[in-house]
Amino acid sequence: MFRNQVNYQTRLSLVTQQTSSEDRESSTFLLPGEAEFPSPPARPDALLRLELALSELVTDLQGISHIVGGDIGLTIQLLRLAARETPESAGTMVTIGEMVIHLGVEKLRTLVARTAALPGHLSHADLSRCERFWMHSRLTALIAEELAGQSTDVRPQDAHLAGLLCHLGNLPQLLGWQAASPGAVNSSNRGHRIAHAWGFPRALADVIGGDREVCLTAESRALLDIVTIADTWAYRLEFLAIRESQRAHARAPLHKLRNG
Predict the structure, then answer these.
(1) pLDDT recorded at residue 119
(2) What residue spans define the domains of the chain?
(3) Which of 39, 70, 100, 157 is most buried, judged by most C-beta within 10 A?
(4) What's the CA angle centered on 90, arms 140 and 138, to 5 degrees?
(5) Which architecture does CATH list for 124-259?
């Protein structure tokens, strides 16, 4: 319905439905999979930016989509809310922009209010690992989106979404949810299970599972291929950035001595 949306500057209030009073109560604002897996946090800066964007009189769809799509926690929460509101759409890949328009401002505001900020109870070391994971997910998504732009089989928006979530199965260990998924064989298997519990589209869940044999359609197999390549490039770029930083740090003392 919204696939050919070109006017990204829109008053979402025109399509917003009033949030029911039960949605405003934390005890009843339940998303799919809540009993099995906790809700993931989001980066504090992303939460703040989204809250500010949703408070504008004229809401910028492209801006909201960009904020959500840059944070794995917000993207997960948006997907879960969309699955709750339209469970019949589980078989189709829907873009972040489409979900934002369909859900409306009030539901998104409630979602932001119910999403915790990343630091939470984490130690400094755990927080550092989480931040690296958040950054890797975003980098993978951006590379996957760029690769899909050169393909006729995968939409860039779908590639971005799959790239962002391809390591979903690592979240339990990062956030201390190990006991919540005792039957998982590995992180990919765990991610596949979480994706299904949270009501993600089937093609996206299959890509998160990371097994080409599980992907039932040519579209999902092409999506997995792009995400796999993007993930590899993201790791390479991160390695090169770390190595260059180490070299610069090693040269710094010599530079200071020469200047002295």
Answers:
(1) 75
(2) 12-113, 124-259
(3) 100
(4) 15
(5) Orthogonal Bundle (1.10)
